[in-house]
Backbone:
């Protein structure tokens, strides 16, 4: 089972759209996991149209209409892996312990909110993955997303994909406004 994981897309606030590379990864995946902060219900509709299967939650920046369509925590068993997705897990310090306590029914938890990629295993053995953000890198050198494989009850082939930096668009002749480089 090929999985593409994204979070904190913030479309159209941080970017007009996702990159072609991310949309290609969505189309190629058997399952797409989105860990919230879509910002636009239109983006949720587009993911539902393009993804073979979608497991998604809402985030703290999502409008009420979107919150009504996706849960705070979503769960599914996929290829023998008990998978969950949530937007926020709190501060990095103590994250593993908190997640062990809160998500004792999962093998893998995908989360977002920080825009910082994360890959760790809790003392109980829960795998924690954060794909970062494909549109808002914050403190990171690049925008990111994840792909991985689920098979026979295991998580394998985890790859953090760094997206190319976008160069500012050239101003149109006669224009005095600079473009947003994101």
Residues:
């Amino acid at each position: 089972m090929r999985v593409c994981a994204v979070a904190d897309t913030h479309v159209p606030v941080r970017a007009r759209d996702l990159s072609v590379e991310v949309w290609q990864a969505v189309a190629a995946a058997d399952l797409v996991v989105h860990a919230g902060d879509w910002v636009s219900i239109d983006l949720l509709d587009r993911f539902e149209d393009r993804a073979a299967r979608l497991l998604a939650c809402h985030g703290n920046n999502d409008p009420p209409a979107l919150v009504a369509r996706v849960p705070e925590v979503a769960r599914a068993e996929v290829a023998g892996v008990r998978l969950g997705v949530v937007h926020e897990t709190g501060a990095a310090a103590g994250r593993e312990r908190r997640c062990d306590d809160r998500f004792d029914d999962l093998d893998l938890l995908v989360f977002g909110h920080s825009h910082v990629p994360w890959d760790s295993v809790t003392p109980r053995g829960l795998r924690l993955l954060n794909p970062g953000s494909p549109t808002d890198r914050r403190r990171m050198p690049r925008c990111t997303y994840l792909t991985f494989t689920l098979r026979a009850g295991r998580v394998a082939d985890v790859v953090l994909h760094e997206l190319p930096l976008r160069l500012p668009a050239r101003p149109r002749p006669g224009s005095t406004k600079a473009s947003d480089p994101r």
About this structure: The chain has one domain: 2-162. The CA atoms of residues 137 and 143 lie 5 Å apart. Confidence is low (pLDDT under 50) at residues 175-182. Strands lie at 2-6, 31-34, 54-56, 73-78, 81-86, 108-111, 118-121, 127-130, 144-151, 154-162.
